[in-house]
Specification:
312 residues, alpha/beta, Rossmann fold, Alpha-Beta Plaits, 2 domains, six-stranded mixed β-sheet, elongated, binds adenosine-5'-triphosphate
């Protein structure tokens, strides 16, 4: 039996004859955190809205637990949209109580669950405050509480970190990981590479409505070569070609090239090899004015796949 919760088969969505999602085929597996990573306008929201039955595809099939998604049971799914949708004149507790009643959650269970969710999202002390008095970050956390009050097995979050400060983002990430611990499937869209990297079991990189790659963050980063990226700036960039040729002798080097008048090396165990690199440059009468070292990121993968940065 397939472990797919959602399956997209050759899905196309067109507006005015223009395909904003173009022939998308993928599976979201039960219990995974599935990230949709792509720049603004890539087609992330349109894709997830089709996945959960809010939008109809122009062509192609979408299956939910192996069945046509038009028969989707709304209790199975929790959707947190980009926009905050709350009753401003009700308290946090009342907002969650109202939505919980709509899902027919028994009173006692609902009250208990509200307290747990508010605690997990660090909103306990705001329980009896009007939503209108909350900060933007708190409202966004409440939006997520509303989407998950009925304990859905599939949680869909559209750019949940947008506008959140680092502390709120941390809380949100913990909450997303908690959903996975509960055995729930989480689908999230983001244009933040660190978020996609840190949270997702698998990441779909999309651009212009097309799936460019789908894999674990680790495997995606291996596309551009195993290891770390070292960036060297010489006092005279005219030496770059000569030094690149010398540096090709460094062990475990996966790639070396020049970009923006700097030398970029991708290699394993870069920290240990820094002394060799520096020695090789200096023994060839060149001087390093700047050196930096970092691990490959999904941003590097996106650049490799599209030739552009994720955030234009
Ligand atoms: N109702 C609509 N009518 C016409 N075009 C639309 C409609 N909804 C979305 N689009 C277009 O489809 C493309 C994909 O939009 P979508 O919102 O899915 O992208 P996204 O990747 O979620 O972007 P963002 O990160 O900005 O939310 C965009 O060019 C957008 O302008």
């Amino acid at each position: 039996m397939s472990d797919a919760v959602i399956e997209l088969q050759n899905v196309v969505k067109k507006y005015d004859k223009i395909a904003v999602v173009n022939n998308l085929s993928l599976e979201v597996k039960k219990g995974e955190i599935f990230g949709f990573l792509g720049p603004n306008g890539a087609g992330k929201s349109t894709s997830i809205n089709m996945m959960v039955g809010l939008l109809k595809p122009t062509s192609g099939n979408i299956l939910f637990n192996g069945k046509d998604s038009s028969y989707l049971d709304e209790k199975e799914i929790g959707i947190c949209p980009q926009d905050v949708v709350l009753w401003n004149n009700l308290t946090c507790f009342e907002n969650l109580y109202m939505i919980g009643k709509m899902y027919d959650i028994p009173k006692k269970t609902l009250k208990e669950r509200i307290l747990v969710i508010l605690e997990k999202l660090h909103l306990t002390d705001k329980k009896d405050e009007l939503v209108s008095s909350l900060s933007g970050g708190m409202k966004r956390r409440m939006n997520i509480a509303m989407a998950t009050i009925h304990n859905p097995s599939v949680v869909v979050l559209d750019e949940p970190s947008e506008g959140l400060d680092p502390q709120s983002r941390r809380l949100l990430w913990d909450y997303i990981l908690h959903q996975k611990e509960l055995g729930h499937t989480v689908i999230l869209t983001t244009h933040l590479m660190d978020e996609a990297d840190m949270l997702s079991d698998r990441v779909a990189i999309i651009d212009h409505g097309q799936l460019l790659k789908l894999d674990t963050p680790k495997k995606l980063k291996q596309i551009i070569g195993n290891g770390d990226t070292v960036q060297l700036e010489l006092d005279n960039s005219e030496d770059n070609t000569k030094i690149i040729n010398k540096l090709k002798s460094i062990a475990d080097l996966n790639n070396i090239f020049e970009a923006d008048e700097k030398i970029i090396l991708v290699l394993l165990d870069a920290v240990k090899k820094l002394p060799d690199i520096i020695h090789l440059v200096e023994s060839n009468d060149s001087k390093i004015v700047d050196i930096s070292i970092r691990q490959n990121t999904l941003e590097d993968v996106f650049i490799e796949l599209t030739g552009r940065q994720l955030r234009e």
